[in-house]
Backbone:
């Protein structure tokens, strides 16, 4: 009998290798003292390397803490203590506990990118940990961890900071790492696809619908980038220059890796990225200078930019053909009343075309290198803002918890609004879509999942904590947040801080704008690719009913058109505000279902030992409570209180899209409740076979009577 037939496929490569070595040198199967010493030395070196970076970071943070305390700056002390909590508990303790005790990660496992058959697939590419970390970090970061905390600062600094810290450590980072591991062990399948195999085909369909709603946020980022291009045209040159620079870096990295290996490629890529980053900031200063010298200014306002359009009377284009304030004499303008095609439409169409191309080409050409370049940009800006805070030594001028209750507080109280407002900085279902839709297909070694999944989420939460401290210590909190949640206060506050480093006001503000636009663009890239993958996975279900329909859904052109058209339409419609206002709830619902799927996986992987699923139970319950609470408040307001508040149902900024989306999301939440209850109350989980030591699901189990896998989840 063939020995390899007696073990699971995931372990065959190890047995084959052992079979080749043991007959020649049998004593090494047990291990000589020399071998054990060499192995111990190698393990010791690996441990030293893995702890050296966190150790250096910790020393710098302790130094900053001492300086902040000496200056009496509670803002610096608060931020540094948050960073140290992430370092000590998150990086050194909890993430390693999850990797070793819960998921039992091993570098002997084969990742999807290393499996045969994916050589020509544009989504699969084995990537070194340092490069994949930067790509994943910037993909999950986007603009949301800036916008959310900057708006949540309205409630004061304490509630948001507590949610950022504890939400990240015990929910968000656990979610990101768990989804990445489960997907990487099962061919890089999305979390929605895996839910059909682990729970039921009904949950798979529910999850795909939730994911598609969540990914409509791509439309909001199109609109956000277009608005910033119009309001601050100095950002157009440096942001778009990132595209050719990233392509050059991607092509060079590929060529050097194939010819000289990954180690030399790492040196080349790091050197190129540093050079391109310097060039990028040079372009920021150049763009500001060009607009100052060559742009047309009236009354201190740039009315005819070099990198944009002259807008308004006698100009090239109007601002926006979808004028939200149409009919409002105070906010609307006569020249935009009959506008057919505006600057907003130009930029959103251009951004959509770019995203469609970026979503179809191999990830190593543009997506990976651009995200890696942006990761350096974010590190530089975060370090600069932190250094400026240490130099300035400001005090927190915001309330710990807001004392005066304004109209915003009446309509959107801290509970539950803040927990859906700060999503990407604490817990975000979008991250699971990135982990399973993009990152798992590029993982080089399985143990990299801890660094890429858990610590990248902590990096994003560090950004959110920094944003919170910057806006709450700028000395303008009481005026900026007097009546509303104004996230743009971060741009002004950050620009003012950078002036502490000797940067002029206009370039400083441009650097902040370029940061926001660049990260909104990374979400646009990854989001469009994930939407395309989701459409393709939906085709697997369609194929079982209609083979012709399945072939259509497998066509990459069909996938990208179906993904792009709804986002482009929403970006240029009055429904865009509805999508954004409900993104938090949809995002958290996605995270909740993802955590449920991971919990079921771990339960079966650990042979139904309940203690292993405890890290997932509390986050799931908390998210379900907050989501339900938030949706009940939204629906109650629009259906019962809205008419008294004078809501606009149809004309300038209609609320009916928000009402419809709220009801749809509420229905999906209710369906999720029922599916979870049925899975556990019916005892269905008791009939599922435990997962083997390889961590791989028996996805190709046969269909038919008696099968434990439903019809949409079997081969």
Residues:
């Amino acid at each position: 009998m063939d020995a390899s037939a007696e073990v699971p496929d995931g372990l065959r490569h190890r047995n084959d290798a052992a079979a080749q070595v043991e007959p020649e040198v049998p004593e090494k199967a047990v291990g000589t003292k020399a071998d054990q010493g060499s192995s111990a030395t190698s393990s010791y070196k690996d441990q030293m390397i893995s702890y050296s970076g966190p150790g250096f970071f910790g020393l710098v943070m302790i130094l900053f803490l001492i300086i902040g305390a000496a200056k009496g700056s509670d803002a610096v002390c608060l931020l540094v203590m948050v960073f140290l909590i992430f370092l000590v508990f998150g990086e050194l303790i909890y993430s390693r506990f999850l990797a070793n005790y819960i998921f039992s990660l091993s570098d002997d496992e084969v990742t999807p990118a290393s499996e045969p058959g994916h050589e020509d697939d544009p989504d699969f590419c084995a990537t070194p940990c340092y490069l994949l970390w930067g790509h994943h970090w910037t993909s999950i970061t986007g603009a949301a961890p800036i916008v959310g905390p900057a708006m949540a600062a309205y409630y004061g600094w304490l509630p948001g900071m507590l949610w950022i810290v504890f939400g990240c450590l015990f929910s968000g980072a656990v979610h990101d790492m768990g989804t990445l591991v489960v997907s990487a062990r099962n061919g890089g399948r999305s979390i929605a696809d895996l839910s059909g195999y682990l729970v039921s085909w009904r949950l798979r369909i529910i999850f795909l619908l939730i994911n598609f709603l969540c990914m409509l946020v791509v439309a909001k980022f199109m609109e956000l980038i277009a608005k910033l291009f119009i309001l601050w045209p100095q950002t157009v040159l440096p942001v778009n220059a990132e595209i050719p620079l990233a392509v050059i870096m991607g092509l060079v990295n590929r060529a050097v890796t194939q010819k000289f290996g990954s180690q030399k490629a790492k040196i080349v890529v790091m050197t190129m990225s540093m050079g391109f980053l310097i060039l990028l900031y040079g372009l920021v200063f150049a763009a500001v200078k060009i607009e100052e010298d060559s742009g047309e200014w009236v009354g201190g306002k740039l009315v005819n930019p070099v990198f944009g359009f002259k807008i308004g009377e006698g100009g090239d284009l109007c601002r926006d053909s979808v004028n939200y304030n149409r009919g409002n004499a105070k906010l609307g303008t006569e020249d935009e009343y009959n506008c057919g095609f505006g600057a907003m439409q130009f930029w959103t169409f251009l951004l959509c075309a770019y995203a469609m191309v970026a979503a179809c080409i191999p990830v190593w050409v543009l997506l990976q290198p651009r995200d890696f370049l942006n990761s350096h940009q974010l590190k530089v800006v975060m370090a600069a803002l932190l250094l400026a805070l240490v130099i300035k030594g400001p005090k927190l001028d915001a309330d710990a918890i807001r004392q005066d209750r304004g109209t915003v507080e009446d309509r959107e109280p801290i509970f539950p609004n803040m927990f859906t407002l700060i999503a990407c900085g604490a817990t975000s279902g979008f991250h699971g879509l990135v982990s399973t839709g993009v990152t798992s297909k590029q993982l080089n070694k399985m143990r990299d999942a801890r660094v890429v999944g858990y610590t990248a989420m902590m990096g994003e939460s560090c950004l959110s904590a920094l944003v919170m401290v910057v806006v709450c210590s700028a000395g303008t909190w009481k005026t900026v947040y007097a009546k509303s949640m104004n996230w743009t206060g971060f741009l002004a506050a950050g620009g003012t801080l950078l002036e502490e480093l000797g940067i002029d006001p206009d370039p400083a503000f441009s650097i902040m704008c370029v940061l926001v636009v660049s990260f909104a663009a990374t979400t646009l890239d990854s989001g469009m690719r994930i939407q395309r993958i989701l459409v393709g996975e939906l085709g697997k279900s369609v194929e079982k009913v209609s083979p012709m329909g399945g072939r259509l859904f497998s066509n990459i052109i069909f996938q990208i058109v179906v993904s792009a058209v709804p986002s482009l339409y929403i970006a240029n419609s009055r429904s865009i505000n509805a999508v954004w206002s409900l993104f938090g709830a949809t995002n958290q619902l996605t995270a909740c279902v993802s955590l449920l799927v991971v919990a079921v996986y771990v339960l079966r992987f650990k042979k139904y030992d309940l203690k292993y699923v405890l890290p997932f139970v509390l986050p799931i319950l908390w998210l379900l409570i907050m989501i339900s609470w938030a949706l009940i408040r939204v629906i109650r307001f629009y259906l019962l209180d809205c008419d008294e508040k004078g809501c606009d149902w149809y004309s300038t900024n209609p609320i009916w899209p928000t009402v419809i989306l709220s009801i749809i999301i509420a229905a999906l939440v209710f369906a999720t409740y029922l599916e979870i209850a049925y899975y556990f109350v019916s005892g269905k989980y008791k009939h599922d076979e435990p997962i083997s030591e390889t961590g791989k699901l028996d996805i190709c189990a046969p269909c038919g009577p008696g099968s434990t896998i439903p019809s949409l989840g079997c081969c």
